Amino acid sequence: MNRLKKILIGVTLIALLFWLLSSYLMRAWTAKPPPLPADVSIMQAKPETRDGKTWLGQSWVSQREGLTIIRLKGSPFDMGYASGVLLQDKMVTLENEFLDMIHGYVPQEWKIKLLKGYVMFRNRRLSDYVSLEDRQQIHGVVTGCKDPHPELGPFYNRMLNYHAAHDISYMMIDNPLVSKAGCTAFGAWGSATEGGHLITGRNFDWEAADVFSRDRVVIMCEPDGGIPFISVSWASMAGVVSGMNRSGISITINGAPSSLPGETATPVAMVARDVLQKAHNLTNALDIIRNTRVFVSTLWLIGSKADGKFVVVEKTPDATNVREADGDSIVSANHFQTEKLKDDSRNVRYIEEATSTPRYARMSELIQTNRGSISATRAAEMLRDRNLPGGKFAGNGHRSSLNALIATHATVMDLTDGIFWAALPPNQLGKFVAFDVNDFDRELPALTVTADGMLTSGELEKAKTAHKALNEGARALKNGDAQAALAAADKAEANNAGFYQNAALRGRALLRLNRSAEAVKAFEMALAAQPAFLSERKEIEDLLKQAQGTK
Fold first, then answer.
1. Are 354 and 408 part of one and the same domain?
2. CA distances (Å), 47 to each of 28, 42, 137, 219, in order?
3. Residue 270, domain extent
4. Is 448 helix (H, G, I), strand (E, B) or coil?
5. Which pLDDT band holds residue 10 (cuts at 50, 70, 90)?
6. Are 350 and 265 contained in the same domain?
7. Number of structural domains, the chain?
8. Which residue in 245, 239, 241 sits closest to 185, CA to CA?
9. Rg of the Cα trace of the chain?
């Protein structure tokens, strides 16, 4: 009895020591906000509505043709505080749905806690690589918005880490949010475009929670002492993933093959923000990027009105390489192409396994097809293209197409005229609303690009029905109901004909039902319809062999 008592006491003491150590480490790894600036008078201001806008200090929020827009002006803290107050509802919704998404991928609570601890450890020095101005803006955001989840730790620490979400996601090798990344962008000028204008367009593809598409926000920023710029992202975002500034610089971010980060550095969205706030030309932009340490690999498509061209910057934690255009257009997908990086083993594997090269090829085709006539309207049409290279349509949602119906936002920019277009949801299908980077108050309804016909033809709803049927079919197979899976495959095909996943699901169901000859035909159809990913193709090939062996 005494021995058992001693064991219990020992276990309790060890558990207590472990808890104390964990608590100490978590506090030590938690980022502390910077001191409040001397002038925090904005905290005494109250929102007021006038002229169709809700104002706080020099900043305001409004709607323009269905898009939420916010103009932030002043010091970093003032801009952050105004953002936190004026976009509070969207911030709360965004975090709630983001957390739901994470729990969907990682349902076990112990894994969530383990992941949280790992991220905090890896990012324990994140503050050292984020400028004081950016940290002050984030501090303003969390001061202006009531913390919706205090149980998850300090709001400032969470918000700082959210700004590194792109980078953090690469810490998880098999993260489904990253393994199928698919952003595509292009820049064109000179004889490639209408009137020789500098035109760029991009799809920000991320198969995330619906809130990231539904609640996109256009942010017009006029920082004290910096170049005014416009970007599209989400409530509370201080960094930039797609934007342009008043000096005629544009920048968009695409993910690239990356190894597990060695240690924390500057989040790439913060680097892009720094470029827009400070750069007047390519030399300025490239100096900023070269001199900033990052912890994941990234592709930046950068345009410059002063230089009259676009370039792609391929950056890893160890190197910065610039890819110049071969002519008057350039395309950026998700793979490296410069001599020093193209043969990297991760890049070679990514090219083989993912969809970067077919998207790159299709965008290159569209540039040539539309050569001499690329305008904002034509650029939007290119971003909405749903065909594979060669112009073949292989079903809606194909990840080798430019428009796989997963974009959280899309933009078009005319650097020559200083006009920025942001698409309304869903994806890049809504109308593209125009903004004047030189006059944020100016409305440009005449320049609006009309919505895609999918929104009124019923085709989008049918594509959603098909996608839902595929998910239901997969669950039915998992639960041993092959007949229900077969019915789901037929429903998916009826609503989205020719998509390889329909035939693949049908083949799996038929194989379970011992209808091998029919399964063989289904798998052959799936392979002929060009599966997007190497892993899918190999799996279907293995199933085909299995079906052939049981005929």
1. yes
2. 37, 10, 19, 18
3. 182-453
4. coil
5. low
6. yes
7. 2
8. 241
9. 25
Q: Quick one: tokens of 33?
A: 């906000």
Residue 38 lies in a domain: no
Angle formed at CA 538 by CA 534 and CA 540, multiple of 5 degrees:
115
Structure tokens at 334: 């998700």
Helices (H), 30-131: 76-86, 88-105, 109-122
Confidence label for 179 from pLDDT (cuts 50, 70 and 90):
low
Q: Are 412 and 484 members of one domain?
A: no
* Cα distance between residue 551 and residue 547, in whole Å: 6
Tell me the C-alpha distance between 473 and 490, whole Å: 10
Measured between alpha carbons, how far is 482 from 472 in angstroms, rounded to an integer? 11
Considering 408, 428, 453, which residue would you say is the last residue of a domain? 453
- Asked if 384 and 330 sit in the same domain, the reply is yes
Say if 401 falls within a structural domain: yes
Considering the domain architecture, whether residues 282 and 383 belong to the same structural domain is answered as: yes
Q: Which two tokens stand for residue 150?
A: 């205090």
Tokens 């709803």 appear where? 461
Amino acid at 28: A
In 3-state terms, what secondary structure has residue 106?
A: coil
Give the strand pairing for 249-255 and 242-245: antiparallel
How confident is the model over 249-291, as pLDDT tens digits?
Answer: 999 999 998 766 667 899 999 999 999 999 999 999 999 999 9
Mean pLDDT confidence for 498-506: 98
149 belongs to a structural domain? no
**Structural domain contains residue 174:** no
Sign of CA dihedral 533, 537, 538, 543: positive
Last residue of a domain, one of 453, 474, 508: 453
User: Is 187 buried (19+), middle (13-18) or exposed (0-12) by CB count in 10 A?
Assistant: buried
**pLDDT grade for 22, boundaries at 50, 70 and 90:** very low
Residues 363, 430 within the same domain:
yes
Answer whether 498's CB lies under 8 Å from 513's CB.
Answer: no
CA distance 93 to 519: 44
Highest mean pLDDT among 159-168, 170-179, 244-253: 244-253
The pLDDT value given to residue 107: 82
Nearest Cα neighbor of 505 from 530, 484, 528 is 484
CATH number at residue 322: 3.60.60.10
DSSP letters, 188-257, are E-GGGBGGG--EEEEEEE----THHHHT-EEEEEEETTS--EEEEE-TT--S-SEEEETTSEEEEEEE--
Name the DSSP class of 147. Answer: -
Please report, for the domain that includes residue 467, its CATH number: 1.25.40.10
Specify whether 472 is located in the same domain as 441: no
Shared-domain flag, residues 377 and 246: yes
Report field, pTM of the whole predicted structure over 0.85? yes
Total residue length of the chain = 551
Q: Which amino acid is at 158?
A: R
